[in-house]
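tool_call: predict_structure(chain=1)
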Amino acid sequence: MRRLRQRLPVRAATVVDDYERHLASERGLSEHTVRAYVGDVVSMLAFLHGLDGAGETGEAESDGADSGEVDPGDGRSAGAGSGEPGGPGEPGEPGGPGGLDIGVLRAWLAQQRGEGHSRTTLARRAASARTFTAWAADRGLLAVDPGLRLAAPKAHRRLPGVLRQEQASDVMGASATGAQQEDPVALRDYALLEMLYATGMRVAELCAVDVDDADLDSRLVRVFGKGSKERMVPFGLPAERALRSWLDAGRGALVTASSGAALFLGARGGRIDQRTVRRVVHDAVESVPGAAGMGPHGLRHTAATHLLEGGADLRSVQELLGHATLSTTQLYTHVTVERLKAIHDRTHPRAQ
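tool_result:
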C-alpha cells in the first residue's frame, strides 16, 4: 500500500495526506482505523487514475481484527462542519479526486467484488468511500458528493466468541494465583485482566488510562474512547483490589522517568502497548482448559454478554461500552439468544 500511495499523482497524494491528518487530528480516530480508511482511499484514487495494484487496500489490525467492530458512521459526519469550505485545490484540478463520480465508485467496488472480497469488506470500503467523498465535497475538492448515491451490500454480522461465566472466573482466578507471588509483571497482568473484564474497555482505551483516571474509592474509571469521547465506567471490588495491589506493590518496581502518568506500564517502564496487552490476554485465556483463544476484544464481548445475561438493559450496555449507535450493541443480544438456543437444544427433551 505504501508503494501504491507513492505512485499516486502529486495532487492526489497531497489530498490523501490532508485527509489522513483530518481523520487523526480532527476526528480523533485510532491509528488502525485511520490506516484502514486511508488504505481504502489510496486504492480508490489509484483506480481512478488507472494505476496497477488498485485492488490492494490497507486493513485494520486493531481490536476490530478480533471482532469486526468498525463503526464508520454514515459517511456524512466526516465533512460536515469539520473544515473550511473551499479548501485547497479545485474539483477539476489534474491529478486530484475531481473525477470521482458514482460510476467510478461502483466500478471500484465491482473490481473488489471480482477479486473475491467478502460482503463485509465491501460494506466497509463503501463506508470509507462515502466518508471520503463527504469530506472532499465539504472541502471543495468535489463539485458534488457522489457517495450519497452509493449503496453497498449489508455486512454479515459475525457473532463474537465469548467465555462462559465460569470460564471467565477461571481466567481471573488463575491470574490472581500468579499475582500472589507479588511479581510486578504478574500484578500488572492480573489488574489489567480484571479491568478489561470489569469494564469492557477497548484495548486502546486501557492503554491510555492514567493513574488519576482511576478513582478507586468510587470504583470509577475515566475512559477516552473513539473520537476522544469521554465516559465514566464503573468497576467492581475484584478489579479494585487488583488495581490497589498493582499500584501499591507493582507499579513502583517498573516505573522510570519515561513512565509519566500511565496506569499500566511495560516491562521497561513506558506506557504499556497494545501488543503486550493482547499477549497477556491470549496467554491467560489459553491457560484455562476448554477456553477458546481470544484477545482483549474477546473480553469486551464477554463483559457485554454477561451484563445482558445478568439483566442489564441495552442502553446501559451501550453507554458502558462507548458505542456510538445502539445497532452495534444489539449484536450482543444475538449472542445471548444463540446461547439460549444452544442450551435449549442440549437440554430440552423436545428440542430435537
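agent: Confidence is low (pLDDT under 50) at residues 57-89. Proceeding to next step.
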